[in-house]
Amino acid sequence: SFALASDVPGEALHKAVISVGNWKAETSDQINNRIQCGLKPFTEYRVHIAATGISGQSAEAEAFFSTGRMGTPWRAKWITDLGYTFPGKVSPVPMTFRRSFSAGKPLRRAWVNAAAFGVYELMLNGSKVGEDYFAPGFTSYAHHMQYQTYEITDRVSPANTLIAVVAGGWAVGSFNYVRKNKISADRQAFLCEVHLEYEDGTRETIGTDESWEVTLEGNYRMAEWYDGETYDATVDLNAVRWKPADAAKPRHEPVLLAQYGDPVRVKDIRHPISRFMSPSGEIIYDFGQNFAGVVCARLRGTHGQKVVFRHAEVLVSGELFVQPLRTAKATATYICKEGDQEYSPRLTYMGFRYVGVRGIDPSDLELKAFVLHSDFEETGDFACSNERINRLHSNIRWSGKSNFVDIPTDCPQRDERQ
Length: 418
Fold this sequence. Notes:
The protein is mainly beta and 418 residues long.
């Protein structure tokens, strides 16, 4: 589909020629033009459109798209740690997987396909892959699951290490106010393929299998929707115990589909409008707006120092009012390494306006917050002369943002979010 613009009164499309590779088609329709050239998987295509209006004026435009797997069988296996079990009503310890690989020839393109029972974070050579939070998203896991595609061409070195952290998420972790867990899987499982396409035309695929390693002793010590996240920066992944990953046979075998939902991403950054000490001694930061998201802390700490961030929507008598959260702890705990560092939760989110901080002097902390919601497009706005109605409209917009975090939810803060 394509759109036209013109300042000629009454202008309309007469015809257009669409070209994709060696395929061409003439059309008088601006929508739903189907490409009939037998597309190949994992291939980038250029689209060129030359349009002519009834006035005789013409315009040209081009765009690019890449195809996904298009039914290409996965060469990867689901992997997990089959020796790990955990009781009811709690979320599992995040699993950390790793695999080293080399790229000894000049690369034309490199990309990753990945999915998980749980939610995953990918890091290549120490840096995050992609911008998404909570991939692969919440689907009916018994029927279908999204997989993500991340371009890593500019990130691949001759020697590489890919790390994936998989938390329980919706599929395995504690989810809903009765704290039910293992709803769709008994433990986390991860599926991944690294695709390397070389300049000489050859290709290599590195898929998850028993050659990957797994540990339960990674930096992420706890992660779940309601209680929050604990991250230990003192953990050295080169010093923990690793074991070969186990090939898994998940309870369900969903159809794997290229991502069709809007990913969750950072959509705004908020800074505190005030800071004060509560009667109990907690440092309270006010972000001036209720929203769904996570803090981002730049701090100066010492080895083993524990900094605790608690979240709430309202204050009572100058203290965080957490009773409406019911059983949810809504707490991020960060254990420092030595020196300057930065921390922001990746495997959970909270609904909050206020953040209470303990364990650090405010002079050693710079705090901001990331607003998280699905990467949707707003297509309209409203304003009028009545500021109370404008505020009502603003509240509606923020409520929508806070409750479109991958799925439509009923609230972003307490032990529910269903």
